[in-house]
Every structure is written in structure tokens, then in C-alpha cells.
Design goal:
The complex is a heterodimer of chains A (300) and B (235).
Chain A: H1 2-20, H2 22-59, E1 61-66, H3 75-84, E2 88-94, H4 96-106, H5 111-114, E3 125-130, H6 137-147, E4 153-157, H7 160-202, H8 204-212, H9 217-253, H10 255-262, H11 272-297
Antiparallel strand pairs in A: 1-3, 1-4, 2-3
Helix pairs in contact in A: 1-9, 2-7, 2-9, 6-7, 7-9, 7-11, 9-11
Chain B: E1 17-28, E2 32-43, E3 47-51, H1 58-65, E4 73-78, E5 81-82, H2 91-95, E6 98-101, H3 113-123, H4 130-141, H5 158-170, E7 176-180, H6 188-203, E8 207-212, H7 215-220, E9 224-229, E10 232-233
The chains are: A alpha+beta (300), B alpha/beta (235).
């Protein structure tokens, strides 16, 4: 009975302390929310960047331009050899004539200019679609290098440079988010510790009395841990709500324009386990802040 | 909670003593000697003055009793607990047996008188329904009327504030009341009122220890005195 009453009272005291020191807490929660907003945004970025990369990877084609003078008779054999190559799903031969037609179709508006172009100036080529599991920058690069060894091949083209750049950015983002996360957690711990310290200072009279009348350590300290934890939780929760609002706004207003460049984008918000982790980090950082300030306060 | 008994200490007697100091020394950082070789015994139900000028060690002595300070040497027994050897987790249990009254009352001015008193009961885990009853009960003991309950301590006179502080100290029906210069901020009439109240508490069976530098106050009451001078019991 007493334990239950005590827990309820400690909880109410924790909220009471936050209410009494309202402006400082609002400021502190605001700072925590901004810090978590940055962290959560950086988590969201690689998450969606990966889906853009995935969409681009699906479009990846390797084009093998053949040397002039490669006889039409070699094409069936080359096609067969390419189909046997590991990682290749589809092989399509594009003759100089077909290439010319395609070129004319793409540049239909400039019809007059293209008149008189001979089919011979368009090299014959193979358009190669890569198997799904081979659609990574490393594998595509290695496949392209193998295909370049074929003696009839003049040049190999693929979106490799872009893919590599994109995946490098993604890699940097993925690591950067943890470095940033570490820095932000340190900031959150420090902000919470300072606010709790301020509360401790304001409450020193009450704490002294409680200690003198025989209140237990848990009774005296728990509201301050609670204060830190709640600050972290509310700050982290607020940042996720803010990010969610902005995400929906972005999805509705900006994403359609981006689809022109990246194709149909599948934008996704942070999955539940990431949201839970952010809230957990918020609570843990807040508790840590409370712990540090109580440690510094020494006698309490 | 199991008490830390000292029966194994041959030179320390626990019989009917409520407080016992045995060759206690206390020095603060900077080699400031607060108490040296202090030995005395206060019996259960006794009313004792600890006297001496400022800096004599009166407050340190009271702090040692509630384990707000730890002695460098010697043994202190309070209500059969060896205070010097108490574990940190056992200190709250010791303090629940002691009520403390301060010169500056130490009331929370942003809370009502009711909340000042009730806070202690809540902290000690009393049943929510019992709290108002207990607050009114203890208020009657110190001779205050119910109207003060809703007031801020700042709206009360010094004497009334000290009565509230004594009410708070009495809440847990302590075995001992320690009062550190309880009349230091009061005029002579209010001083008498507070001292009479402490005497009344004493007649109810509570051991009372009053630390004061006021010789005239001590002279008005025929109580045992422990005189301190420069950290030692004066001859």
C-alpha cells in the first residue's frame, strides 16, 4: 500500500517539479527536440536515399558498343556467350540501323537536322540487363570489366560513376548519422543535466528537509531522474512528431516533382523500431543527465 | 530494519540512554577542529541544553546525532543505534526517530503550512487519507489553529512559524527532538512560548536537546546543561 502510494507521489512530484520550473524545462525540451530532429532527419535521409539508389539500380543497363567491322555473323554467337555470363539476365542486340531509328525517334523534333545521317555512323551494340542480385556498384563494375575483355567490344558504358557516387554518399550518411548521433546525445545529456541542476538548486530547501525527516534516497532522487527522463522522452517525441509533419508535407508537395528525375519514389518514414530507439535514447540520455547532475550535487 | 547495536563495545553503555557520545572527535577540512574528546550521556525523556558561544561546536554535535556528519573518532549511540557505523541506507530510519528544529525554521515559503507539514508525511509513506487527520492533530499539540493551514509561512509571525516547524518535527512521534537555536530569531515573549512548547513535548516523553548560546534562556529553566567551549565540554 505504502509502496504504491509512494510511487504515485514520486510521479506526481516529478511532474510537479517540472511544472514549477516550467520555462527552464520548455527551453530544455525545445533544445532536446531540435537535437533529436536533426538526428532523426539524418536517419531518414539514408533510409530514403537507399530507396532512390535502389530505383536507379533497377534501371541500370550495361551497353557494349561493338568495334566497327564486327560481322553480323558473329552476333548470334556473341549473344549466346553473353547470356551464359554470370549476372546477365537479358541481352538485346541493337544493330546500326535500329540505333539510327531509335535516335531519330528520340530526336523527332529535329527531323530536318538528322536527314542524311548514315546508319554506319551508329555502332552496333548490346543492351544488357543485369540480374537483380548483381545490381550493386561493385558487381556491376566487375561485370563491366569482364565484358570489356571481349575482343569485339569497343567500349562498355554503364551508370557506374553515378552509382558509385550515390553509394558513397549513402555510406557517408550512414556513418555520419552515428557520429552526429553521438554528438547530439552528448548535447542532450548536458542540456538535461543543466536543467536538472537548476531544479536541484531551486529545490535544495525541500531536499534538505526531506533528508532530515528520513525520506529515503529513492524518494528524494527519483523525481529528478524522472524529470530528466521525461525531458528526454518529450523532446524526442516532439521531434518525431515534427519530422512526421514535415515528411507528409514533403511527400505531398515536393516528392511528385522529384519523381521526374528519380522515377516513382517510395518515400518511407522511420520504421517503428527506429522511433522506439529514438524515444529510448531520449529517455536514457535524460536519465543520464539527471544522474550526472545528482552526482555533481554530491550531498543529495 | 536491524539496529546496529554496540553491545560488543565494553566502554559504551546503552541501558536507558537515548544519546551517548564516547570520546568523539570531529575535524573539518583545513584542520578546523570542531569537537574533541566529547563524552556525555542523555537519558530517555531528559531535557538538556547544549550551550556555548558561536563556534563552540553545538551545531556539529547535533549534526553528528542525525549523521549529517560522521565523527573522525569515537562512538555515538542514538536510541540504541551506533550512528558512527550506520550504513548510508540505514540513515533514513535513524532520522525518522528524530525531529529537528532550526533557528530559521526552514519552512518552504512557496507552499502552504498544510503542504509543509503534509510533505513529510507523504515522504514517509503515510496513507493519503490519514494525512489531513494527522496534520490537524499535530497542529493542536503545538497550539495553532486550523486557519493557518492554508497560509503561506511568510504570513505568520516568527513564533507561529517556529510552531509550524515544531509541528513538522513532531509528525512522526520522534523519540528525540533536536533544536538548534530554536528561539534565536524570536523576541522574549515568543521565546518563552516556544520553550514552554518544547517542555510540553518533553513531558509527553520525548527527549529534547536544545542547542543555544543564550545564557539567560538556560538560566530560566532548571535543566541539565552540556557546556561546550572551543569544541570541548567545558569543566
Amino acid at each position: 500500500m505504502k509502496g504504491g502510494m509512494g510511487a504515485l507521489f514520486i510521479l506526481r512530484r516529478g511532474f510537479g517539479i517540472m511544472r514549477e520550473n516550467g520555462p527552464a524545462h520548455i527551453l530544455s525540451i525545445g533544445t532536446i527536440a531540435v537535437a533529436f530532429f536533426l538526428f532523426a532527419s539524418f536517419l531518414l535521409l539514408p533510409l530514403n536515399f537507399a530507396s532512390v539508389l535502389e530505383a536507379w539500380e533497377k534501371k541500370v543497363q550495361i551497353i557494349l558498343y561493338l568495334k566497327d567491322g564486327t560481322g553480323e555473323g558473329r552476333i548470334p554467337q556473341l549473344t549466346e556467350d553473353l547470356r551464359k555470363e554470370e549476372g546477365i539476365r537479358e541481352v538485346r542486340y541493337v544493330s546500326p540501323g535500329a540505333a539510327k531509328k531509335s535516335f531519330e525517334k528520340d530526336l523527332a523534333g529535329y527531323g530536318g537536322v538528322l536527314k542524311g545521317l548514315k546508319a554506319e555512323i551508329f555502332p552496333a551494340s548490346f543492351e544488357i540487363t543485369v540480374q537483380e542480385r548483381f545490381r550493386t556498384p561493385e558487381r556491376i563494375r566487375s561485370l563491366a570489366a569482364r565484358l570489356d575483355m571481349i575482343k569485339e567490344v569497343e567500349e562498355v558504358q554503364y551508370g557506374g560513376v553515378w552509382l558509385e557516387r550515390l553509394s558513397l554518399i549513402l555510406y557517408t550518411l550512414r556513418w555520419g548519422v552515428w557520429v552526429l548521433g553521438g554528438v547530439l546525445v552528448a548535447i542532450i545529456v548536458s542540456v538535461t543535466a543543466n536543467t536538472v541542476r537548476l531544479t536541484l538548486y531551486n529545490k535544495r530547501g525541500e531536499i534538505e528537509i526531506l533528508k532530515l525527516v528520513g525520506a529515503t534516497d529513492a524518494f528524494v532522487k527519483l523525481p529528478f531522474y524522472l524529470e530528466g527522463g521525461l525531458q528526454g522522452l518529450v523532446g524526442a517525441g516532439g521531434s518525431i512528431l515534427l519530422l512526421l509533419c514535415l515528411f507528409h508535407l514533403f511527400s505531398a508537395k515536393v516528392a511528385p516533382y522529384l519523381s521526374f528525375y528519380f522515377g516513382q519514389l517510395r518515400l518511407s518514414f522511420l520504421p517503428p523500431h527506429m522511433i522506439a530507439s529514438i524515444l529510448g535514447i531520449g529517455v536514457a540520455a535524460g536519465l543520464l543527465g539527471g544522474l550526472f547532475s545528482l552526482r555533481k550535487a554530491g550531498g543529495i | 530494519m536491524q539496529k546496529d547495536r554496540v553491545s560488543s563495545q565494553p566502554s559504551v553503555h546503552t541501558d536507558a540512554s537515548m544519546i551517548q557520545f564516547f570520546r568523539v572527535y570531529k575535524t573539518y577540512p583545513g584542520n578546523i577542529r570542531a569537537l574533541a574528546n566529547i563524552s556525555f550521556k542523555i537519558e530517555k525523556g531528559e531535557f538538556v541544553f547544549v550551550t556555548g558561544p558561536s563556534g563552540a561546536g553545538k551545531t556539529t554535535l547535533l549534526k553528528l546525532i542525525i549523521r549529517a556528519e560522521r565523527p573522525d573518532q569515537g562512538e555515538i549511540v542514538v536510541n540504541k543505534r551506533n550512528v558512527a557505523r550506520l550504513r548510508h541506507s540505514q540513515i533514513p530510519a535513524l532520522r525518522r526517530e528524530i525531529g529537528f528544529v532550526f533557528q530559521d525554521f526552514k519552512l518552504l515559503n512557496h507552499k502552504s503550512v498544510y503542504d509543509n507539514i503534509a510533505l513529510v508525511l507523504r515522504a514517509l509513506g503515510h496513507n493519503k487519507r490519514e494525512i489531513p487527520k494527522r496534520v490537524r492533530q499535530v497542529l493542536r499539540v503545538v497550539g495553532l489553529e486550523e486557519w493557518v493551514l492554508k497560509q503561506s509561512p511568510l504570513k505568520l509571525s516568527g513564533g507561529e512559524q517556529q510552531r509550524v516547524a515544531i509541528a513538522r518535527a513532531l509528525l512522526n512521534t520522534p523519540a528525540i527532538i533536536l533544536a538548534d537555536e530554536p528561539t534565536g530569531n524570536l523576541d522574549p515573549d515568543l521565546t518563552m512560548e516556544i520553550m514552554d512548547l518544547l517542555e510540553k513535548v518533553n513531558t509527553l516523553g520525548t527527549t529534547v536537546v536544545v542547542a543555544t548560546h543564550d545564557r539567560s534562556l538556560v538560566a530560566q529553566y532548571s535543566k541539565r546543561t552540556i557546556p561546550l567551549y572551543r569544541g570541548q565540554v567545558a569543566a
